[in-house]
Structures are given as C-alpha cells and as structure tokens.
C-alpha cells in the first residue's frame, strides 16, 4: 500500500482520537475552574462527557475522578505520551498529504512510522487493560 493511501486512511482515525482525547478523556486533568461551574468556559465538555457516559454506558466516564488507581495512571500516560504522539501524527499525516498551506504531498518518513508504531503500542496497551477490566467487571461497578 502506498504511503499516501495509508496516510489518507490513518489521518481520520488519528484525528478522531486527538479530538476525543482533548474533549472527553483529559477533562479531569484540566483546572476545575475551566469546567466545573455552569458558567465556566469548558462546562459544555462536562455536559458532553456526562451525555456520553449515559448514552454509551461507559463506566470510565461515569466519574470524573477515576475510581481505579490503574485508570488514573493510564490517564497520565494518555496525557504525557499518547496525546503528543497523536498530535504529531495528525500533523505529519496532514502535511504528508499536502493539506497544509502551500504544502505538496510527501512520503511518510521513518520517524513518523516509528511514532505510529509507538502510538499503536500505547493505544493497544490502554485498550487491552480496559477490555480486561470490563470482562471482569461486576454489576456493582457498572453505571
């Protein structure tokens, strides 16, 4: 598969992950003054997160403070490792497709592919931990 076709496939996937990370996942790490009260500038993100938790039944979004220590650790991994990798990949894939101003299409470089591998490993690790937890989760922890 050519680099440009692969980039066209990966860009929307990684871009959705970037938006989800900023809008839903990292909200508990933002200063409370930005989202806690109804007059706060990011309060709509709290409303969206609450809606998503009730709509999807996602037990990890039911509480703003993670109840499980491992989940809090994964939140920091997402903020410090996965988010920068995601932002870098969105930037590189969009420039690789010539989507930046005055940009022409370029092949994906080795460092970008290495960042993609790291991103995939970190994302897989977090998803696997959540899946294992869900498989063993009792009804008392489900929202």
Secondary structure elements and their pairing?
Blueprint: H1 3-25, H2 43-56, H3 69-96, H4 110-136
Helix pairs in contact: 1-3, 3-4
Characterise this structure.
The protein has 143 residues and is mainly α. It has one domain (3-141). It contains 4 helices and no strands. It has helices spanning 3-25, 43-56, 69-96, 110-136. Helix 1 (3-25) runs antiparallel to helix 3 and helix 3 (69-96) runs antiparallel to helix 4. The longest helix is centred in the middle third of the chain and has 28 residues, at 69-96. It is globular. The termini are far apart. The mean pLDDT is 87.
Quick recap:
This protein has 143 residues and is mostly helical. It is 64% helix and 0% strand. The chain is globular, with a radius of gyration of 17 Å.
* Structure classification: mainly alpha
Give the domain tally: 1
Approximate helicity band: 55-70%
Count of strand segments = 0
Outline the low-pLDDT stretches. none
- How would a textbook summarize the main sheet? none
Strand content: under 5%
Quaternary form = single chain
Radius of gyration: 17 Å
- The helix/strand order is HHHH
- What's the tally of helices? 4
Distance between the termini: 43 Å
What is the global morphology? globular
Q: What average pLDDT do the residues reach?
A: 87
